[in-house]
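It would be a great kindness if you could assist me with a short task in structural biology. A protein sequence and the structure tokens that stand for its backbone fold form the material at issue. I should value your view on which stretches of the chain appear to form regular backbone elements. The record follows directly beneath this note.
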Amino acid sequence: MMIPKLHYISQDTTPKKCLENIQKACTSGVELVQLRFKNASEKKMLKLAKDVLEITTHYQTRLIINGHYKVAKAIKADGVHLESTDVCPTIVRKHLESWQIIGATANTLQDCETLISKAVDYVMLSPFRATPDQDDLGEVLGLKGFTAITDALQTETPILGFGGITTNDVTAILKSGVSGIAATKAIDQNFDAIKVFNHLLSASSTQEQRHTF
């Protein structure tokens, strides 16, 4: 399964707001939504995920569940995204269907190497820049950090950048060797940003496509 180059990470505090924003993101053409709803019980997450799935299915948008791999399995979501404090990808893989993807967050070269050795489908390198609402920040990486890590990795596994990224950053980030991006705030503030992100990301993918076949 090809991993879309743009991931919208929904990080709202109420289910209602979450559904509204995911609806807007899907309407604006996002190909993949990651549902991140922190501190929700599994029961609450399952209910919300079912409601989100109705929206994403309607728009043929892929849905990934943050952390709750049992919920991802129960609703047959496209996959799960694991953060450093979540269960190990190797264990999660045993619970999921073979077609469900596993992505995971990394902050260092060592994190990336460990995750790739555990056969994750993509790695989300974070944070690109400091953001006030992230509680689990590692060291801010910036372009230098992204470039150093992707240069050292030389991997086929897609590496996505995350953490305060705006449309203005995309061209430079792609030059760093990162193949896609994830965003929350830049999209929540203006859903038309999805079209801009998609345009900038696909402009680069035409070069890549040549040697992927």
